[in-house]
Amino acid sequence: MSNIDMTSVNAIRILAADAVQKAKSGHPGLPLGSAAMAYELWAKHMNHNPKNPKWVNRDRFVLSAGHGSTLLYSLLHLFGYGLTVDDLANFRQDGSLTPGHPEYGHTVGVEATTGPLGAGMAMAVGMAMAETHLAATFNKENFPIVDHYTYVLGGDGCLMEGISSEAFSLAGTLGLSKLIVFYDSNKISIEGSTDLAFTEDVQKRLAAFGFQIIIVENGNDLVEIGKAIETAKADKTRPSFITVKTQIGFGCPAKQGKASAHGEPLGEDNVKALKENLKWEKLDPFYVPDAVYANYKELAKQGAQAEDQWNTLFAAYCAKYPDCKTLWDTFHNDVDARKLLNNEAFWAYENKPQATRNLSGIAINKLKDIMPNLFGGSADLAPSTKTHMDGISDFSKENYIGRNLHFGVRELAMAGIANGITLHGGLKTYIATFFVFSDYIKPMARLAALMGIPVTYVLTHDSIGVGEDGPTHEPIEQLAMLRAMPNFNVFRPADATETAAGWYLAMTSKHTPTALVLTRQNLPQLAGSSKEALKGAYVIAEAAKEVPDAILIASGSEVELAVNAKIELAKDNIDVRVVSMPCMDLFEEQTDAYKESILPRAVKARVAVEAAIDFGWGKYVGIDGATVTMKGFGASAPAGILFDKFGFTTQNVVETMKKVYLLATDTDQ
Questions:
Q1: What is the DSSP string of 431-495?
Q2: Separation of alpha carbons 343 and 105, rounded Å
Q3: pLDDT in tens, 512-543
Q4: What is the pLDDT of residues 446-463, one digit of tens each?
Q5: Which of 304, 344, 461, 666 is a good FRET partner for 105, with 20 to 30 A between their CA atoms?
Q6: What is the pLDDT of residue 611?
Q7: How far apart are alpha carbons 31 and 98 in whole angstroms?
Q8: Measured between alpha carbons, how far is 465 from 461 in angstroms, rounded to an integer?
Q9: For 154-168, what is each residue's pLDDT tens digit?
């Protein structure tokens, strides 16, 4: 290690320790221990250009151990990504560019929002999958225009979380050789030594998954780390797992190797001792020598040169393969929303009863030709979720050009991988499972919502209509769970037109994930169904009067039930408007005038009908209204029997509305 390299590594440590100390909050241990491997990677092996952080062929770096965010912020500052010393000094403060955990879209140079341990591992797998597919699609002989690596750094916690095993098992199966994992092995967790709860041979586990295993014995030896990275790159058939043995809190005499270095400031005296131990020339907070800044500036130029070379290559590629350039633009631009909205073939359907999962499958197979970058699949459930793209090959180790993804029974990792595919850019992805298993995907869906990336979730078998599989497979509270999440559209369509609307929403969304919640059982095509579903709620069956006597609100399979109840209630001179509400989230985005036109305040008699728990419906039915919903878990029996058993019948909806209407009219008098 040269003197300037050693000083540059220590600059990362000093800035990280000072930021945590200034905030009086944070995790200094990982940045102190991992600084050398991060420097060696970013300085000597990783293609990245601080002047253009979105360069499409840059190497990706994900800090899965997001609690060590000051490691990443120090790198971004030193390499010139725009983070200032003031930004570092405002670590964890309101409105700063240096939040407690890295946030995608908030801080330039952050490739993914991380914090939940292991999540970054799954997202890195998704990025590597995207790279391999795009390379297979676009690269030509002598024109490797898609040619970059995905690096991810995590620690013991990331390896303990099950999501990493799920994701790495798939990565090994797929032979993602452009994926390189750094394991910061310091044998310390919050509670103490990892021997308390984590004694497995991690290397043997990853070898069993199909990874090349590399061990760096000294986490401060830049030469050894560099050789490990080059060995990883040399393997063209396997992803690589580099174990780097480090000491948490390295350089701080009182904290080095101790659990107390993990998640609390070192303390002013210990920060001073750290600087003295590292022979830092000044004790001033956030001081970095000019020679170090100059070194990083020179290193950053290498990235700019790499992009310049790529730009030249890409220009020649476009000239030689103009059709490929046109396809490239299609992949990297948003779908034409107006064109899709007016595409008659996309919105066309057969007028016969069909399950919305089947209708969704039809939509997917229309979209696959409209959007050649549609890239998706399910957690071993494509025949049931109807998410297979017909006539399209499968993505596999032998065929990276395939677009049908097989995630295996790995819902949590699947959702994290979908985040990574979307973050990478160039592809529009969807994933699928049974709705009840949204419990497994929810943590990664939450990250998608937080990052503002438009992942699509196809969630079928949406109610007690699952039937014989019983309560373990019958979603009850999941609609409420997902609806509670900010920046997340939950769309439960009632028929073909609404299903197409849901897919239109998902494919044109730029910053919001979409869950399409779909039936197993057949539903009729409804006469009043329209593209107005894109407003979240609309009148699907109007009352005879300008101001109706009552309003029935429903989603999905229960809209038909509400329409049938309207007919029966008319016989008792109760004039009912039926509102289909496929997406509460979209409805809340509409103007107050529109919402009033659909649900006028003057109409107090309201009943919501949905085969799920009633949580969330109170704001629409009001204190005088009622719900026909589930009160507990389901049961194992044919679907028709269950709908009768739990009160989802025309008669029960009619009787419920009559009670509400009578109470409302009595109150008016």
A1: EEEEGGGHHHHHHHHHHHHHHT---EEEEES-SGGGGGG-GGG--SSHHHHHHTSTT-EEE--SS
A2: 33
A3: 999 999 999 999 999 999 999 999 999 999 99
A4: 999 999 999 999 999 999
A5: 304
A6: 98
A7: 15
A8: 7
A9: 999 999 999 999 999
Which residues define the annotated binding site? 27, 67, 115-117, 156-157, 186, 188, 262, 357, 384, 437, 461, 469, 473, 520
Please, are residues 515 and 482 in contact by the beta-carbon 8 Å criterion? yes
Range of the domain at 155: 3-301
The residue behind tokens 């000072």 is 18
The answer for residues whose C-beta is within 8 angstroms of residue 236's C-beta and 6 or more apart is 177
- DSSP-derived 3-state class of residue 553: strand
SS3 content of the chain, % helix, strand, coil (to 5): 50, 15, 40
**CATH code (residue 623):** 3.40.50.920
In a domain, 500, yes or no: yes
Q: Is the pLDDT confidence value at 668 over 70?
A: no
**Token pair for 341:** 């909205």
Both 51 and 126 in a single domain? yes
Domain boundary among 523, 551, 576: 523
pLDDT number for residue 1: 65
Closest by CA to 278, choosing from 37, 26, 30, 32, is: 32
Q: Which residues are annotated as a binding site for thiamine diphosphate?
A: 67, 115-117, 157, 186, 262, 437
Q: Looking at this protein, which amino acid is placed at residue 49? A: N
Termini Cα distance of the chain: 88
Residues tagged in the binding site annotation for substrate: 27, 262, 357, 384, 461, 469, 473, 520
Asked if residue 448 and residue 423 are part of one domain, the reply reads yes
The residues near 635 (Cβ < 8 Å, ≥ 6 apart) are 464, 470, 471, 642, 645
Q: Tokens standing for 661?
A: 């209407």
Element containing residue 355 per DSSP (H, E):
strand 354-355
Identify any residues that bridge with 522 across adjacent strands, giving them in sequence order.
355
Boundary residue ending a domain (252, 275, 301):
301
476 and 594, same domain (yes or no): no
Please give the C-alpha separations between residue 657 and each of 230, 464, 537, 559, in angstroms, as whole numbers: 71, 22, 20, 15
The values of phi and psi at residue 375, to 5°, are -145, 105
> Exactly one of 411, 558, 560, 610 is catalytic; which is it?
411
In b/e form, how buried is each residue of 322-335, taking b as 16+ CB within 10 angstroms? Answer: eebbeebeebeeeb
Is residue 161 part of the annotated active site? The answer reads no
The two three-digit tokens of residue 76, written as one number? 């971004």
